[in-house]
Design goal:
pyruvate-formate lyase- activating enzyme, four-stranded parallel sheet, alpha/beta
Length: 227
């Protein structure tokens, strides 16, 4: 959950759509992996704990920067850093596998923060970690360029040039295996920095293994695709 849009947006407090989905997953013991930027996920620790009994749940908090002012510019209306780290701590204390997703990394702007983010997350209880470079598909690219021009005009060209160097001269590369990390010398340097920092922080895992062994099939016959 949250592969594209965060499933714990502010309106979730009122609508509880994600919570209702989790209740269905719990009923059938269907494994779920959640990535979010918001502490609201801790509201559903009761449901997640039911799934964890069957090794069927894990939650990662995305952290982009430790700079509170930069976060406000990059991710308005998301939970502040302290709240995200607190969420990792609450999840871990409840026995729910918790991790950190250092994403999106913006080369030339936030990439130097990878080690500090991993250390802070590890101290909060994160046992798994990953990272991803910012993606700029379709209309996102010109919006991102405008955002840089508005907030970081002095770094705009450095950031854009670094992204192009990661993606064969383009701002975006949709190829599987390349779109989240890029390739070339700067991609290798980020990968190495992440690896060294991950080991130093004591985070051993790239991910959390989930199990389908307890999955319960719904009763009755499979519904037809066409009636």
């Amino acid at each position: 959950m949250s592969g594209v849009t965060d499933c714990y947006q502010p309106i979730e407090r009122r609508l509880k759509l994600t919570r209702r989905c989790l209740k269905v997953l719990v009923e059938f013991r269907n494994p779920v992996f959640i990535i979010t930027k918001n502490r609201l996920v801790t509201r559903d620790i009761d449901l997640l704990s039911e799934l964890v009994r069957h090794q069927a749940a894990a939650v990662w908090l995305s952290i982009t920067t430790l700079n509170s002012e930069l976060r406000k510019v990059m991710e308005p209306r998301t939970a502040p850093l302290a709240a995200r780290l607190a969420a990792i701590r609450e999840l871990a204390q409840a026995g729910i596998p918790a991790g950190v997703n250092v994403a999106p990394v913006i080369p030339g702007l936030t990439d130097h923060e990878i080690p500090a983010i991993l250390q802070a997350a590890a101290e909060a209880g994160a046992t798994a970690a990953g990272f991803a470079v910012v993606r700029l598909p379709y209309a996102v690219a010109p919006l991102f360029e405008k955002w840089l021009e508005t907030h970081f005009p002095d770094r705009k060209e450095k950031v854009l040039n670094r992204l192009r160097s990661l993606r064969g001269g383009k701002l975006n590369d949709s190829q599987w295996g390349k779109r989240l990390r890029g390739e070339g010398i700067f991609a290798d340097q980020m990968e190495q920095m992440f690896e060294v920092a991950r080991r130093k922080a004591g985070i051993r895992n790239y991910g959390n293994e989930l199990s389908v062994m307890a999955f319960r099939r719904p009763p009755g016959a499979q519904l037809p695709l066409f009636s």
